[in-house]
Amino acid sequence: METTTFTALCERAGRWWTIRVPQVEGLTAQVRSLDQAEIMTRTSIARALGIPPESIRVEILPDAPAPVAHALQARHAAVQAAEAAAKATHAALTELAREGYTFDDAVHMLGLSPAEIEQYTSRPGGVGNARGSSGPMQMADQ
Q: 3-class DSSP state for residue 78?
């Protein structure tokens, strides 16, 4: 099922949070705490547009003090960097296996522990050969 992403702009109003969804004109809601914002927004959008709630993805954007916004941006950047590093590491291990490098060589070249490299070997399409092997690495699906 295809999903559509909506933004829930959440603003503190005393002990409540007011939610506004800019993609749906006039749609607002209120919740006591932010942990209720996603489900309330999803339900409100589904009712307003007559679409199934499971086809709706909600991105919660609370109006927060600057240090909170900065922390969220930094955390988001860290997640993206970790994902990019994992993809690059997998690509490097695949190439090292294709070129016949040993597991031990891969450990030293990438500066990872054998256990860290083994995490990539257990994934589908990962690189084969046991820890400490002096033989050439092989693709797991070969």
A: helix
**In total, how many domains does the chain have?**
2
33-71 pLDDT tens trace: 999 999 999 999 999 999 999 999 999 999 988 898 899
Specify the pTM. 0.56
Residue range(s) defining the domain that contains residue 31: 4-63
Question: 45 and 76: one domain?
Answer: no
Phi, psi of 117 (to 5 degrees): -70, -35
Q: Of the candidates 62, 80, 77, 137, which has an alpha carbon nearest to the alpha carbon of residue 106?
A: 137
Rg (CA), the chain: 23
For residue 137, the 8-state DSSP code is P
Burial (CB count <10 Å: 0-12, 13-18, 19+), residue 61: middle
pLDDT digits (tens, 9 = 90+) for 101-119: 999 999 999 999 999 988 8
Same domain? 33 vs 74: no
Q: Are β-strands 4-13 and 56-62 bridged in parallel, bridged antiparallel, or unpaired?
A: parallel
CATH code of 58's domain = 3.30.2390.10
What's the token pair of residue 3? 């999903």
Q: Is there a single domain that holds both residue 78 and residue 135?
A: yes
Tokens describing residue 49 = 């547009």
